[in-house]
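Protocol step 4 of 6: structure prediction from sequence.
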Amino acid sequence: MPELSKWLENDELNYRNSNLEEFFIKDWDGMGITKRMNEFIQNVQNDLDRVRLQDRFYNNIVMWEALIASRKQVFIRSMIGGMERRFEILDNQVNHIAFTHHAFDEHLDLCRNKRIKCRDSTRVVLTYPSTANNDFIHANYIQGAPLFNKFIITQAPMKNTIGDFWRMVWQERSPYIFMLISRKEDDRCAQYWPRKTGDQITYYGLTIMNSAVDEFRLPLFRVTYLIVVGPERDEVCIYYMLNIGKVI
């Protein structure tokens, strides 16, 4: 096995979060959480018999205007089996707030799913490098209660957006990348990171190197240690975490 660089040998993951600790001390409501989970389970069961539709949107996803009765149950099972079992969708107007998505409309060739809009007010605007032809990537900042950290959620990279993905990582100095989908099928996600130890790729003057792959450090994730080297030889060290239940 190649010798690990010093930042890997000496690093110890620090999971402490002062905001999270303060929340559990002052604001944690176990009974309230239990009640909320029970209500969520009941809502999921109720959704087996209906689809919440308002105008042309379902949870900000553009839908067709008419739902054919014979296909209703298939459609409902599909939604329940996917997103709805993982994310609670509140049955109120919050899910249908109108927003602008002009940048998205102008760069449809850079968007994996044309139905999922990228909101202008929270999108990540790419500024690196200054000579790039566009500033668009299908990615949005996610922050605020009940989250305790700032996140960026983005689509799985396509072949023509891999460079933009690493532009964003470099610009935002992102220390962690969590991959939530599988790469079992190439059309779901491009191979956007160097997979094997010692491999490297280059985009927009950035060199992304695979320093090591650890199958055992964390029980639920395969951790890949990536180093991104910029044009001035400065570095960003990244933990790339892939759920070991997924197949890449």
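Step 5 (inspection) to follow. The longest strand covers residues 206-214.
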